[in-house]
Amino acid sequence: MGRRPIGRARGGFARGGRKRGLQAAFDAEVAAEIEALVGPGAVDGLDFEAIETAARRRALGVAARAVAQRLNADRSDHRGPTFPCGCGKAARYAGRREKTFQSVLGELTLERAYYHCEACEAGLFPRDRALGIEGSSLSPAVTRMVGMVAAMVSFAEGSELMQELAGVPVDPKQVERTAEALGREIAQDERRVVEPEPPTAPTMYLGMDGTGVPMRAAELAGRAGKQPDGSSKTREVKLVTVWSAEGRDEEGIPVRDPGSITYSAALESAASRDTDEFPSKFAQRADREAQRRGFDQAQRRVVLGDGAPWIWNLADEQFPGAIQIVDLYHAKGHLWDVAKAIYGAGSDLGEQWAKQRRDELDEGQIHAVLAALQVHAQANEEARKCLDHVARNQSRMRYPEFRAQGLCVSSGVVEAGCKVVIGTRLKRAGMHWTVAGADAIIALRCCKLSGRFEDFWERRSAIGLAGAGGAG
Ligand SMILES: [Zn+2]
Q1: How far is the CA of 88 from the centre of ligand 1 (A)?
Q2: If exposure means fewest CB atoms within 10 Å of the residue's CB, which of 65, 78, 354, 394 is most exposed?
Q3: In the chain, which stretches have pLDDT less than 70?
Q4: Ramachandran assignment for 406, one of left (phi > 0), alpha (psi -120 to 50 degrees), beta (any other)
């Protein structure tokens, strides 16, 4: 047994002497279809786009018939009068049943051996399991396409792209169900499979951040939040990002290495108490991602984040000895907010104040920043909060020192990560999520954006085969 992996299509279709005959018949049928389509006239007057679109549809139609015939000719999924059911009893053979599947070739109607278990009422199709289409009406290749589009765009847009680009109709609800099921598999796979790699650079960076995702009302019942009545409209996704920044721009400032960034995120808590036996869910996630990227093995390790206490608690516990830096990009943004709160938006005075504070930060004059904030702390809430924030994080804001060591202090990677991974897909107008739905799509999107979709898909195919129970 064992899967004929990629490339199985070649020669895998028909065996021995029948192969050439089938191939010729197939070629002839496609050629005839195309000839009928184009007609006898000169080709210069043709609507090329109409021809290519129709030709694709017809060629795929011929292929769909050939594939269905080939699969239906094989009745080896009839394993005798009984087949072992998951419940432990024997399911009884009850004839062959038809089902139409949506494939990238179009619809395929397959006849499969059907077993019925009287003990638990389950119906079993050994072939569906062997081909990885159990409980679905979508073929593996369509499922994969749906996963890809739903990782990038809304379910409705994904449905439209499937039709427009692949010519495969999958309605938005089905895109949603399929993508969420796939996302749940990916989330499980992420927790199960940690294959440590060596670090890709001498200095590795790990960033953490949080962002609110709009939830359906039922998912928020009883949760405290920032709304005037104390309720909440969102729940916080936490994101861990790992990257390297060996490259330098014209001014010698470290820049993120293209392709070095990976993401992992979920609606998870980072809270932990000393009495807890295990680290928080999110701490475990950060640890898995660090292992995968060889963060722990790097010569130099840097944790970047904003001022949120949970980030630094987690960094102390999970990554002791790593250099801790408050992202300068974030710190400067914070000072801008204070300037706005004190002087009003768009005021010259405010702009001047913010610029001065930012220069002080750049030059490592934290005491000057603290003194300037102190002046307004009594009267202004934003200034007071920022004062607390800077005072608490002084050791993480030694920017001249960090720069002298060649470290990246203002990547914007961490903040951008939340926008790229979460915002552009999950925080669009009118979107409201369930916890399960959001987590599934976040897992799917992190997998895709981290360049891990192919690896996941190979593991998924291998598992499908292992579970096929001697098929093939
Ligand atoms: Zn059963």
Answers
A1: 6
A2: 394
A3: 1-18, 226, 230-231, 274, 411, 464-472
A4: left
